[in-house]
Amino acid sequence: MSKNKSHGQELLEKLSYKAHNAWNKISDKEVENTFSFCEEYKDFLNKSKTEREFVKQAKKIIEKNGFISIDDIISSNKKLKQGMKVYRIIKNKSMILAVIGSNPPQKGLNLLGAHIDSPRLDLKPNPIYESSDMVFLKTHYYGGIKKYQWVTIPLAIHGIFIKKDGTSVEVEIGEDEKDTVFTITDLLPHLAQEQMQKKMSEGITGEGLNILFGSMPFNDEKVSDKVKLNILNLLNQKYGIVEEDFQSAEIEFVPSFKAQDVGLDRSMVGAYGQDDRVCAYTALRSIIDLKEIEKTAVCFLADKEEIGSMGNTGAQSTILENFIADICNLSTDNYTDILLRRCITNSKMLSADVNAAIDPNYEGVYDKLNSSFAGRGIVLQKYTGARGKAGASDANAEFVAEVRNLFNNNKIVWQTAELGKVDQGGGGTIAQFMANMGMDVIDCGVAVLSMHAPFEVTSKVDIYMTYKGYKVFLEKI
What we know:
Blueprint: H1 7-15, H2 28-47, H3 51-64, E1 68-69, H4 70-75, E2 85-90, E3 94-99, E4 110-115, E5 120-131, E6 134-142, E7 155-162, E8 168-173, H5 200-203, E9 211-214, H6 226-239, E10 249-255, E11 260-262, E12 268-271, H7 274-288, E13 297-302, H8 319-329, H9 337-345, E14 348-351, E15 355-356, E16 378-381, E17 385-386, H10 397-409, E18 414-416, E19 426-427, H11 431-435, E20 440-445, E21 447-449, E22 456-459, H12 460-476
Parallel strand pairs: 1-2, 4-13, 4-14, 14-20, 15-21, 16-18
Antiparallel strand pairs: 2-3, 3-13, 5-6, 5-10, 6-9, 7-8, 7-10, 11-12, 12-22, 16-20, 17-19, 21-22
Helix pairs in contact: 2-12, 7-12, 8-9
């Protein structure tokens, strides 16, 4: 027995479990690496506020690191070989990457699956209208938001118009410090007595999220809606678009502010869209940094998770299965459907998504024994869902043990969590759809404060530990 510890203290240390603050578990060199990694992460966030922009920026990075289109390999009738790096982009809004290992695909793949969409405000198909000598844009919010958080903040416009001749025009206004910005107005407190008597969910309505877009009239007394005409004229002069082009456009409004350090110690990152780009970026970096591996590694970066993973760019589609089928087909001369089935069944995935960090200002909605804490490392979440685990993917104990031991053996600081108290609410990820394919899946990612708000907060040490955890999973599971 240690001279400084009683028998009970040693027994408690041996038998009990407690998550630890990750800052206390890493070296000075790792602290330096953590801050450096997060500088690159913040820069990426500033350039990737929409799913299209994420794919665009990621494509630049991966091609510099030797990734080539798998469809180019298919068209050239070549086969995949160990060490090759391939990718596929789907509709410019989802992306799948792979690094080919030495094992044949039927022995299974190691996968990371994150989503690259975030809550935001989309424009309605007919958005422009004039009222009281001002022009507004009508929006339809995307994903789960607290509507009151989106008023009176500076907003930027991001998106693409497909014009009637088929050409496309990309638009981004509000990100450069010299750009104009946009906003949603709110009622002054002097006149808000009735508004403030309402529930928070009713104080600002979805139909009230109308974006202030201009107020200068066109100089022609013979036309009505002069301000709207002036706006349409400006859009036409700069982008060559007309009002009908809004019908075939994907225009998103997002917070215009940049990713910044939070805290006097600069230990945290504050930014829009960290759910789930904090996990998507760390997953992307982890597969890029792989060297020689045995199992083929795959990184699935999906769209539409915030609205249920529907559509042909979401995790409920066949895009991942199609990609895996191509991996199998390009790895053998005797492809069969059973080879694909064996490959998927033997595969293992970390569903790379965030968890809700416990907030001391609102402790009442959390089970403190089963919540994630900012700064305590990567979060393992055995199951998601709501209340009675509805809509959950509940990872089996054997797979949880495998991941747990992997992290312990490789000095990855980790913690486990649920998303709030049992009857309080809940949430979901892409894990359930991946599990439906037959592979082992567990949710694993970064704890976030103010999730789904225009400005979310994460711990830098959690971000770096998540990158390390993802990388070792792809290498060694």
